[in-house]
Specification:
The structure is a single chain. It is built from five helices and ten strands. By secondary structure, it is an alpha/beta fold. It has a single domain, classed as Rossmann fold (3-Layer(aba) Sandwich). The chain has a five-stranded parallel sheet, sandwiched between helices. Strands 5, 6, 7, 8 and 9 form a five-stranded antiparallel sheet that branches. The chain is globular and about 50 Å long. The termini are close together.
């Protein structure tokens, strides 16, 4: 069954066509690429924080996978971080895909960008029923304030993990679109 995938990205990478290569690769495949695209596209130009959060929340609603397309400045984008933390809250499978090896509209590639999953994390409460959200800012881990901590009626993780802190990059996979042959392997990555 095809997954409904939410793509998170920096809009500059759309302008440079790198995002389009990943999001539209299924068009050129003869087999089913295994996903439906649930990304925010032109609607993301709204201005208020509340309106952006509502838009993101509604687009994430029926997804089960979130793929962050990592360009040069993706990790700096507030709304990319929100999309990832909201995806974590709803327990989506999350993956990061480096896209700077894809030739842009100028036919050039760029150096790797920083992985946003390295800059987001969580701590599990001692009883395992609450997840406290963090982001790396100004050289330290600070409480994430665009989303409330996550309450879990039943613990999400085994008790051996209670009380520990984890970066999202330690919990989810990271790929390189070119080196890891995303064109042929994306379907497996989102399983």
């Amino acid at each position: 069954m095809a997954k409904r995938v939410f793509f998170s990205f920096h809009y500059q990478d759309v302008i440079d066509f790198r995002v389009n290569v990943v999001r539209n690769h299924k068009i050129t495949k003869s087999d089913n690429a295994g996903y439906f695209d649930a990304s925010i596209w032109e609607d993301a130009k709204r201005t208020s924080d509340l309106s952006l959060k509502r838009l993101i929340n509604s687009e994430l609603l029926y997804t089960s996978v979130t793929a962050v397309l990592v360009g040069t400045e993706t990790y700096e984008r507030r709304w990319v971080r929100y999309e990832l933390m909201k995806s974590f809250e709803k327990n989506n499978k999350i993956l990061a895909i480096h896209i700077n090896g894809i030739a842009g509209r100028n036919s050039l590639t760029k150096s790797f960008g920083k992985n946003p999953l390295d800059y987001l994390g969580f701590r599990i409460s001692g009883d395992g029923k609450k997840l406290f959200l963090y982001e790396w800012k100004n050289g330290e881990w600070l409480r994430y304030n665009d989303l409330d901590d996550i309450s879990c009626p039943t613990p999400r993780y085994d008790s051996q993990y209670n009380g520990n802190f984890y970066q999202l990059s330690k919990c989810y996979s990271t790929f390189d679109w070119i080196k890891d042959d995303g064109y042929n392997n994306f379907k497996d990555w989102i399983k």
